[in-house]
Amino acid sequence: MATSNMELYAAFCDGGQNECPPEDVGGIPGYEELVKTFRSGTEVAKREYREWLDMGPKKNWDPKRYNQREVDKRMALVAPESSTFLS
C-alpha cells in the first residue's frame, strides 16, 4: 500500500473554555443544577455530587475550569493517530 496517496487526519483542539458536563449529568437541567449546587448549594448536596464525581471531600467542581492537556489526552483516545488515515 503506497502512503503517498494517503493523507493524515487527526482530531485536535487548539483552545477552549469551561469544563464539559459530566457524563449522565441529566442534560441541560442536570448541568444547571450541578453548577447551582457548587455555587450556592448546601454542603450535603455538594458532598453528594463530590461522591458521584469521584472527587475529594473538600474539592469543588468548577465549571470555568479548562485544561488543554486533559482535552488533548481525551481527543487522543477518541481519534488515535493510527486510525486517522484517509485515502
Topology overview:
Elements: E1 7-8, H1 27-40, H2 43-53, H3 68-78, E2 85-86
Antiparallel strand pairs: 1-2
Quick recap:
The protein is mainly alpha-helical. Helix content is 41%, strand content 5%.
3D architecture notes:
By secondary structure, this protein is mainly α. The chain has one domain. It is built from 3 helices and 2 strands. It has helices at residues 27-40, 43-53, 68-78; strands at 7-8, 85-86. The chain has a two-stranded antiparallel ribbon. The model has no long low-confidence stretch (mean pLDDT 81).
- Average pLDDT across residues? 81
Helices, by number, come to 3
| Rg, Cα atoms, Å | 18 Å
Percentage of residues in helical conformation: 40-55%
Classification by helices and strands: mainly alpha
End-to-end distance: 11 Å
Task: Work out the count of structural domains.
Answer: 1
Q: How are strands sequenced across the largest beta sheet?
A: 1-2
The beta-strand count equals 2
